[in-house]
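User: I want to check something. If I give you two sequences, will you return the structure for each one separately, not as a complex?

Assistant: Yes, each is folded on its own. Here is the first sequence with its structure:
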Amino acid sequence: MLPQEIIRIKRDKGTLSAEQIREFIAGIGIKKVDDVQVAAMTMAIFLNGLNKRETIDLTLAMRDSGDVLRWDGFDKPIVDKHSSGGVGDKVSLMLAPMLAACDVYVPMIAGRGLGHTGGTIDKLEAIPHYNTAADNTLFRKTVKEVGCAIIGQTGNLAPADKKIYAIRDVCGTVESIPLITASILSKKLAAGLQYLVMDLKCGNGAFMANFEDAKALAQSIIDVANGAGTQTRAVLTDMNQVLGSTAGNAVEVKEAVEYLQGKNVNPRLDQVTRALCTEMLVMCHRCDTLAEADKMLSDALSSGLALEKFAQMVAALGGPTDFVEKYEQYLPHAAHIKPVYTAQSGYITAMNARAVGLSIIELGGGRSTPAQTLDLATGYTEFAQVGDYVDAQKPLALVHYQTEEQFERAARALLNAVTVGKTQPAPANPVLLKI
């Protein structure tokens, strides 16, 4: 069937057969389906949706567009976590080595920035010579020897998703439950996982701003993943503010390392990371209770083993062998750092995290076109949280920038993104729901 005819069916709100979906996805790899046709199909799906069976068929077709990894001979649970995307979300950088230190295998296939959200792979590329495009042999070797490895999609791992992912990012079709489900799970299923915990972000900085939409995405992912043989749970977490005290690429790597060192632990970031880790450790039967799992994580951090796992992963994938000791020297630095102060003193009562994410794109730290080269040094540090007091001495954030024009744009964006009031809001739990 011609690609345009398959597009026409979904455009007219029809139901696609498994064969039509497989034919369209296979056509991407053999150049029978053009980029503009992929964009048209994603828009048709964005507008008209897919039913559960269509979503499963799309996920499996994208998974089977390349290699599907097998973990024969690996004698520990094969686990992973995935986030639906947030601003300042560097959880994967800590979670993978923390879980590896708890004696499970974590083969993590991560993505680049999408829309206003940052990407784990972009962050890791701030580490000199870190190989985010490791082949399957090196990937397996690193997982076996270290316990964890975080890489991007290679050409042979769900390659159809890699193409679709880049096109969705720049054609306005990111916020679609079936497309998000298929994109996430095609990579995860191709990685051969036994257990998966989803971090579904909800709030103004998430792709799903509405709580009910986030629950629907969580249920979609659980249904498709469990139907495909991967045990899956979901945790809904808050994304109505920056997660952690940094937002950017290199600056988030720095915060992740310092978290693992125990010297810069943001409470909300810690809560989210531990919630995901403990769910995983119980689900894969490594621990019997969440309390037991939390104690195991605390031991992994306090002993230094989680930090050691991160260091070993970086070295195994081509990065510096002394990265965790000299990360300040290795990570790129912006030419200038300057604080942004609010016009009035008071407590931050609300934050538009999406606006903060978009401002990072303006700083060069995110993409407006698929092939754009990022400035990995720019971003924000010491980012105030909702409930924090800001005044003429306590800034909203420190901006890491290259030009004065960048700083002026960033400062305007940050000031417009926050609300300051006289009454301190009550602290809110960043973990909203577990499914």
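And separately, the second sequence with its own structure:
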Amino acid sequence: MIRHIVMWKFRPGTEAEQEQFLAGLAGLYGVIPQIKAQEIRRDSAGGENWSAVLISDFNSLEDLKAYKKDPRHVAVSALCKSIRESRAAVDYQI
């Protein structure tokens, strides 16, 4: 099993787009079959370091790659790219 963790720092003034992005990301769970578990959280400290985090699980690296290429994920990611200042990610075996 692979755990995929992504953190974003969003640009100020993009609050509406942030909500749209996070809702779109949450909507992928149960739709893209490779996602086995998913959790999305906003930073409780006001986003000093990172604004939000995604923690998701996949059966394999191949499933993670398929998820990343899925057109539904690509569409949601396009919005994120337009509102983020930075992004960090790590994938590891659990």
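Because they were folded independently, the notes below concern the second chain alone. The longest strand covers residues 84-93. The radius of gyration is 13 Å.
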